[in-house]
Amino acid sequence: MKHTHKTCGSPEHLLHRRLFLQGTMAASAASVASFNGLFSVPALADETKRQGKKCILLWLCGAPSQFETWDPKPGTPFSGPFGAIPTNLPGVQISSLMPKCAGIMDKLAVIRSMSTEPGEHFQGIDVLTRGDKPRQPFIRPILGSVVAEQLGHLDSPVPQFILLDPCPEGNEFKGFKAGNWAGWLGAQYGPVRAGGEYSIPNLNKLDTISDIDHQDREALRSFFSKKYENDRRSQAAGSLNAAFDRVKGLMSCAPLFDLNSLPETDRQRYGAGAFAQHALQARHLIENGSTFVMVANGMPWDNHVFQHEMHQMLVPELDNVLYQLVTDLEDRGMLEDTLVIAMGEFGRSPWLNEARGRDHYPKAWSMAMAGGGIRGGVVHGATDPLGHEVAEDAVDNRQLFATIFAALGIDPHEEYDLPDLPTFLRVEDGVAPIQQLLV
Amino acid sequence: MFLPCRYFIGTFLTASVLMMHASRAAEPSEGSGDLFPVAKINDFVSQAWEERGVQPAARCDDRQFVRRVYLDLAGRVPTIEEADAFANDPQTDKRAALVDRLLASEDYPQHFADLFDALLMGRTNEGKYKQRANSGWRKYLEDVFRNNRPWDEVAAEVLLARPEDKAKRGSVWFLYERNDQHQAIAEAVAPAFFGIRIECAQCHDHMVVNEIEQAHYWGLVAFFNRSKNAKTKEGLRVAESAIGGFSDFANLEGDSTPNLLTFLGASTVDEPRPAGDAKQEDSDDLYVATSAEPANRIPKFSRRQRFVEDVLRDHPLLARSMVNRLWAIMLGRGIVHPFDEMDSVHPPSHPELLDWLAAEFAESNYDIRSLVRSLALSDAYQLDSRQPVGVDDPASFAWYLERRLTGEQLARSIQLIAEGKFTNDAELIKQFRQQISDVLPDETVVGVDDTLFLTNGPGLDHYLRSSRDKAGLLAELNGIESHRQRAERLFQSVFLRAPDVDETEAVVDYLNARNDDLPAALQQVLWSMINSAEFQFNH
């Protein structure tokens, strides 16, 4: 089926009145964005149901330990120095490193029975951000691209999918980031990336050019370039023009990327680190029209060495950030429509290696969600007393993604179909969402 | 025809791929047309059109051809004069003559050195680019293309990294820049010289590509893991030890395997392994000759040398991967796509053509220039770039696939238009190669970061502004009589064609509105054209 869209995505033609180009600007020119997105347009009823749903993904790259976060095992040989503390859910305990989240467990949904396949970062990141392992011949879009395409507004000046990651360099995550994010949806659904400066390079107009020249020369450029694109039905030119079309909108929201514009008290509440500041910025962007913000911080969680010390540094920050984010969204009346997800690509081993680190462990691990169609106060699934195996209600990546899509009002089972090619589904094999987690 | 017995045939390599040619041309060729008969390339491609019921695009006209071939072979657009001279040349074989002239020009080694630096080494920061120049690597690459050196010799020099004369000192840099990171070396060697990616086989046999095993990954690492960077009196060297480098690798199930000297498509190189934890003693008699400089000692059993002689030499993928990459450079995508994933998951679109080209390439003494020449003169290369209606598959090569200009191509072409000449180490080149890093991307995707750079980056603006003062295009335009003629001149310079009525009108209207500051207005018009798809793409 061919995808059509309510908005054709064509830009308002920025023409100074002195220019008489309107006559030559084919008003009926083909849409600038080449929509090779392929899911059908949702029915109107669906549209209203999920209006305004948004998502923040706190991507804990490198993979945090479930034992020092959501699934502590006090008194076991490898439990480490941190105890477990009670929460505001009777009978539920989490790591003593997370006292703030312990006070809002009634708003969180924790899955303690994640069980996935890949045990290496690159493949793990791939499966847990796209929802499934690679399958030829298409590249599955990343969660943010799907949500931006389904729920976002392509003609909004505010980027619909933003990746905040201060560490462009460095590790398996870097390699992953260099890949194709939007997959079969097409590049216009890829993220806008803002890095260590908390902003986007070249976002501000040069002083050497006036506003009017800035507009006029782009109008001219667009005229020449779209003529070429339309004459040839050129997808390559379409990609260039779509990217130029986004410049003005992005420039207009430059202030959104200025952290200094946010209240100092907020900045202090979240904390000084890049991860915390980016989480605050994510809230700010969502409040101002973004649909999906992915907050990453390089790959700090991969603690094969001295994992207790590392987690002692990292978990309290996560605890605070998650607490601030969930309570802020609730105070603003946005929690119901904003899904917050906190997870990495797998868990850590229930035993310590010789360097007192925990190694990769995809077999049994934990993740957390809140808001946006997810039921609060739920702890789903369990592991055995030592955390070696899932003891009940194992959840794999497909069930997780089906649940996330359902919570956001996106049909998990929609098909992607092209003649003579295998059929792809948003979630393969008709895997169902976990009803217990849905509002 | 003979098959060196050290190859066992993986299922993905058809027997014909492994047809080895023992005989070598005695003299390196200067690039002759009969090595890769153009008619034969055309037959393979047109036969596939027929079989697939594809109606290819028409042949491109001279104006399209001249811009296209300058960009692809010389890394820049032609000047108006060059384009006119070609268009007005009455000779029937002028396309072949132009291809020959470009391949003999200094632009060709510069452009191909740009491409291959990015493909073999990856993009990097300006500090590293300086090191690539200082180490002689850049010059070495230029020499490869300028002197049309056989690719198998180049591969062997780069991987052995023992330059015998000063002129080749840069050959060590491929290994040296990777700074004793032996896994990074292996992960770079595989796509650079074999056209495959092995990163996925680090922890387990490749999950999708059956023939790529974890043993190949760690085997390739082992060939290089006795190597160590050294600064010697003779210059930079990659020293090699005669001992060490034995370990076991574990798969996800925890089974461990010794890292034997083995790689895809070649048999394992024998090497005695010390028992268990036995300590090896290093001593002079393990080396060919003692040298005052330990870094220059050559082990009697050199793993790098074994790799070059027992694995690399005549390896079927060495010719096959280079042929596929050159095809991708000239035709916009590989016969196997992506061009550096030549494995069983990515079958070639034209298997017989690829087999034949690879065999010819090995036979021709790995003659790069002759192959590039034949590709440039093939029918598929000379098709119009408009996608014909009803033809969807780019792998049919039924139209010339548009491609985005690389950072260097853009910066050179902009300089040439604005100043009438260009310098390769201009600031503009540095700015553009830092921002626009794609070389042979799998698909054309322009990011908003690039368009922000072109819109608000100080580099391009500053450069165009400064060309107002020079005897460059903007100054010249200022001196022209009418807006209409200015529009005409701009279109000839930037797009190598006359403007149509609409386009002339748009420019004239704009300039009329900006008579208050004509130099600034002309600069903005130039900006708008340089950033239009017609200039940003090769078509």
Automatic annotation (TrEMBL), chain A:
<dbReference type="InterPro" id="IPR010869">
    <property type="entry name" value="DUF1501"/>
</dbReference>
<protein>
    <recommendedName>
        <fullName>Sulfatase</fullName>
    </recommendedName>
</protein>
<dbReference type="InterPro" id="IPR006311">
    <property type="entry name" value="TAT_signal"/>
</dbReference>
<dbReference type="InterPro" id="IPR017850">
    <property type="entry name" value="Alkaline_phosphatase_core_sf"/>
</dbReference>
<dbReference type="Pfam" id="PF07394">
    <property type="entry name" value="DUF1501"/>
</dbReference>
TrEMBL record, chain B:
<dbReference type="Pfam" id="PF07583">
    <property type="entry name" value="PSCyt2"/>
</dbReference>
<dbReference type="Pfam" id="PF07587">
    <property type="entry name" value="PSD1"/>
</dbReference>
<dbReference type="InterPro" id="IPR011444">
    <property type="entry name" value="DUF1549"/>
</dbReference>
<keyword id="KW-0732">Signal</keyword>
<feature type="signal peptide">
    <location>
        <begin position="1"/>
        <end position="25"/>
    </location>
</feature>
<feature type="domain" description="DUF1549">
    <location>
        <begin position="40"/>
        <end position="228"/>
    </location>
</feature>
<protein>
    <recommendedName>
        <fullName>DUF1549 domain-containing protein</fullName>
    </recommendedName>
</protein>
<dbReference type="InterPro" id="IPR022655">
    <property type="entry name" value="DUF1553"/>
</dbReference>
<feature type="domain" description="DUF1553">
    <location>
        <begin position="313"/>
        <end position="417"/>
    </location>
</feature>
